[in-house]
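Input (structure):
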């Protein structure tokens, strides 16, 4: 039997590419630049499987006339794919959960600490040769240790951040999730539930977002919600850019009440709202949540496992549609 033909839309770490090439007739996007919608549509018509990433938007129109059998997303979030349209076209969709939980939680902590302690601003001052020496009032930040962390979206990654914050930084952790969370899971990371996003925002010194993206959570954090956050609070987003109204956030970073923000994701990646770029109190990272070697290899291996199971006639372990 001939091996199924798979298109991988970006380059992967070498180990994952080698494993993929050993299992399938695979084509990698050698140039490693984002493919156009037309090229993606063509791939869905000419390959048995496509393995896209968060930066490939597989919108409903691309599924018209598609003959691929499976889309194996290299990533846990899959709001880049219109799963309803995929289903209608009879195409299975899978993702890569679990393997990037720790790395993404680590980066959320890094952004939280950097934003709170003004690391970006401090480094820019130092590199510009503008540092005049130690003084008691220089670059005063916010203290995370012992403060209250609000987690919005309390799935795997939200809980991993809570664990770090509670056990490592003695933080009180509160959370909101639209779906029920087992009491033991919350207790294991010392977290208390709150009834609404607003309740979390009013009480937390630090707020970290771990919801899905998409229409459901578009502008989950908007001007009204920013306005009820505590004076001096810090907002962190490693989830999806659309969860935060960036224009409203830039305004809040300028006028308060919040002190700072740490962002790994943006509404129109790779473009970043110029109003945010202008804010010294925003720490901005280029979507690095899962960016460690072992994690990016593990994501490839998980995407591969999903493909192997599917083409062997087994249920793919991470089917989302
Ligand atoms: C994901 O997997 O959803 C990330 O955003 C990319 O690692």
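Output (sequence):
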């Amino acid at each position: 039997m001939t091996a199924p033909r798979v298109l991988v839309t970006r380059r992967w770490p070498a180990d994952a590419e080698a494993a993929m090439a050993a299992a399938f007739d695979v084509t990698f996007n050698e140039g490693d630049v984002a493919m156009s919608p037309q090229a993606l549509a063509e791939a869905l018509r000419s390959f048995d499987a496509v393995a896209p990433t968060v930066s490939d938007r597989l919108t409903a129109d691309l599924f018209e006339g598609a003959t691929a059998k499976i889309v194996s997303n290299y990533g846990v979030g899959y709001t880049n794919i219109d799963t309803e349209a995929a289903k209608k076209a009879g195409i299975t969709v899978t993702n890569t959960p679990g393997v990037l939980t720790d790395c993404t939680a680590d980066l959320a902590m890094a952004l939280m600490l950097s934003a709170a302690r003004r690391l970006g601003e401090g480094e820019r001052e130092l590199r510009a040769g503008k540092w005049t020496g130690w003084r008691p009032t220089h670059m005063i930040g916010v203290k995370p240790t012992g403060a209250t962390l609000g987690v919005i979206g309390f799935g795997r990654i939200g809980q991993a951040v809570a664990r770090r914050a509670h056990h490592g930084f003695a933080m009180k952790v509160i959370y909101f999730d639209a779906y029920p969370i087992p009491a033991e899971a919350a207790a294991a990371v010392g977290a208390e539930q709150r009834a609404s996003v607003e309740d979390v925002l009013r009480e937390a010194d630090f707020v970290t977002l771990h919801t899905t993206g998409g229409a459901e959570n578009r502008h989950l954090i908007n001007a009204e919600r920013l306005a009820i956050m505590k004076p001096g609070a810090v907002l962190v987003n490693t989830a999806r850019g659309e969860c935060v109204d960036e224009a409203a956030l830039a305004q809040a970073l300028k006028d308060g009440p919040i002190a700072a923000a740490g962002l790994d994701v943006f509404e129109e990646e790779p473009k970043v709202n110029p109003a945010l770029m202008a804010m010294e109190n925003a720490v901005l990272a280029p979507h690095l949540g899962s960016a460690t070697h072992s994690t990016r290899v593990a994501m490839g291996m998980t995407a591969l496992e999903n493909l192997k199971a599917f083409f062997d006639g087994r249920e793919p372990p991470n089917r989302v549609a």
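Notes: The mean pLDDT is 98. The radius of gyration is 21 Å.
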